[in-house]
């Protein structure tokens, strides 16, 4: 009887050892499988983070830290910003100059400079032209809006070009700086193609295609582009370097066939164009202590009619 009991005990011990070994192997296999799957690993990390955040909130809210209740670790992904160290040396020169000239933070400007280079390469447009247009149109204010409804960095007429925002989720994307830049570049490219030249394309963009003058818009954009080109070459350009004084717009003239408004576009009224020209008329003051940004202020953005 004692031998029988001893045999049973040894058998159960062997079974338990084998079972634990199999369980350990199964755990190792599951861990290795999960580690090889990015989706499973991210899901586990997210659940662990949520659990930790809940524990943190449970301790912090009674202590009066209201921010804990609204904490959003992924919010940084929405920020339009880039580390200037990610840019090339020439791009850094341009970003720093624009940041000083228009009184904006270098990180968001760095992101826009990088995007201008990327989009400009695809669209076959000089990135300095894109950045110069942003400067004249909105002074790098992504929430700017004109009296006629032109919105964002490049003052695109959202209600006219709503189809261009479909690929970005809808017209609210007009206030996303990167999206507005991409749409504005596409509109500019279409304007240049229809007008036949860069200068006429700029007039078409600002809605002065049927006027004998654009109020100095094209000359201001091209002058700012020249500033950026010189900065790109390492030359020293004053942060308050003046722009050309705009010329008052004249009465409407007959629109050449080459500049005819396409079916989807709409030129702004001459009165609105004149108002925009006056808004751009004041060049930056020559104050070395605190030079104001040239071109339109955030409250006086460009009005784009063909956009």
Q: Describe it for me?
A:
There is one protein chain. The chain is an all-alpha fold and 307 residues long. It has two domains: 2-78, no CATH class; 84-279, Lysozyme (Orthogonal Bundle), CATH 1.10.530. It is built from nine helices and two strands; from the N terminus they run αααααββαααα. The protein has helices at 2-36, 38-60, 89-102, 106-123, 127-138, 177-195, 198-206, 217-232, 270-279, and strands at 150-151, 156-157. The protein has a two-stranded antiparallel ribbon. Mean pLDDT is 79; it is low at 249-305.
State the major sheet: 2 strands, antiparallel
Strand content: under 5%
Number of domains: 2
H/E topology pattern: HHHHHEEHHHH
Gyration radius, rounded: 30 Å
Uncertain parts:
249-305
pLDDT average, as an integer?
A: 79
Order of strands, widest sheet: 1-2
Tally of contiguous helical segments: 9
In the CATH hierarchy, the architecture of the largest domain is: Orthogonal Bundle
**Percent helix among the residues?**
40-55%
Outline: elongated
**CATH topology group of the largest domain:** Lysozyme
Distance between the termini: 98 Å
CATH class descriptor of the largest domain:
Mainly Alpha
Number of strands: 2
How would you summarize what this structure contains?
The chain contains nine helices and two strands. It is an all-alpha fold and 307 residues long.
């Amino acid at each position: 009887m004692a031998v029988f009991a001893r045999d049973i005990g040894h058998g159960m011990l062997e079974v338990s050892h084998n079972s634990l070994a199999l369980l350990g192997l199964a755990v190792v296999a599951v861990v290795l499988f999960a580690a090889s799957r990015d989706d499973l690993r991210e899901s586990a990390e997210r659940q662990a983070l949520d659990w930790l955040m809940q524990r943190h909130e449970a301790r912090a809210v009674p202590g009066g830290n209201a921010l804990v209740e609204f904490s959003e670790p992924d919010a940084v992904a929405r920020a339009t910003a880039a580390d200037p160290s990610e840019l090339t040396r020439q791009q850094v020169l341009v970003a720093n100059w624009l940041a000083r000239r228009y009184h904006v933070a270098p990180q968001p400007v760095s992101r826009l400079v990088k995007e201008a280079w990327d989009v400009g390469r695809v669209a076959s447009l000089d990135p300095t032209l894109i950045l110069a247009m942003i400067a004249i149109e909105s002074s790098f204010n992504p929430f700017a809006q004109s009296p006629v409804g032109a919105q964002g960095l490049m003052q695109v007429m959202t209600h006219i070009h709503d189809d261009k925002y479909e690929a970005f989720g809808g017209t609210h994307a007009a206030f996303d700086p990167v999206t507005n830049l991409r749409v504005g570049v596409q509109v500019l490219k279409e304007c240049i193609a229809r007008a036949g030249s860069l200068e006429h394309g700029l007039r078409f963009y600002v809605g002065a295609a049927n006027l004998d003058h654009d109020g100095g818009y094209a000359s201001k954009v091209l002058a700012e582009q020249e500033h950026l080109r010189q900065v790109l070459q390492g030359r020293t350009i004053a942060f308050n370097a003046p722009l050309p004084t705009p010329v008052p717009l004249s009465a409407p003239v007959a629109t050449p066939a080459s500049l005819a408004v396409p079916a989807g576009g709409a030129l702004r009224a001459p009165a609105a164009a004149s108002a925009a020209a006056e808004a751009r008329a004041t060049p930056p003051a020559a104050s070395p202590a605190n030079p104001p940004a040239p071109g339109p202020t955030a409250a006086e953005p460009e009005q784009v009619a063909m956009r």
